[in-house]
Amino acid sequence: MKKYLIILVAALVLFFLLFYFPNNSKTIKSVRIAGQNIKVELAVTAEEKQKGLSGRNNLKEDKGMLFVFENLDNYSFWMKDMNFPIDMIWIGEDLKVIYIKKNALPESYPESFGPEISDKNVKYVLEVVSGFSDKNNLKIGDSVLFTY
Q1: Architecture in CATH of 23-147
Q2: What angle do CA 37, 72, 120 make, to 5 degrees?
Q3: Which of 34, 49, 72, 112 could cross-link to 136 by cystine, CB 3.0-4.6 Å?
Q4: Contact 33, 144 (CB under 8 A)
Q5: How far apart are CA 105 and CA 122, in angstroms?
C-alpha cells in the first residue's frame, strides 16, 4: 500500500509540474533590450520558426519576433519571402547578446546570417525592425531581460 501511495504522490507532483506551471518560453510577453521594451510574438514550434516574419508587409518599432530554441547551437537565418529589412539579434542562454546582423535585406536571400560556427551557445534570436540596433546603440554583450 505504501508503494502505491508513493507512486500516486509522485504522479501528482509530476502532473502539477507539467501542467500547472506553464512553459516559460510560451509565456514570454516582451523583451527588454537596449533600454527598450519589445512586445514579442514567439516562434517556438518548427512551423513557427520556418515561417518567421515572412509574408508580412512591415513590423512596428515596438514589436518583434523571438525564436526560442530547446538546444544550444549555432542557428542561421535567411530572408526567404521577407518584404522588409530587419535587424537580427542572437542571444545566449545567459541572456547576453552574442551577435547582431543589422539591416538584413529581403534581396539578400538565399544568403544566410548568423554568428561564427564556433558559437554554439545560441538559445534565442530576436528579429526587430531594421535600424533598431543602431538607434538604441545595441552592442554584443548587452543584457536582455524577458517579461512574462
Answers
A1: Sandwich (2.60)
A2: 105
A3: 34
A4: yes
A5: 22
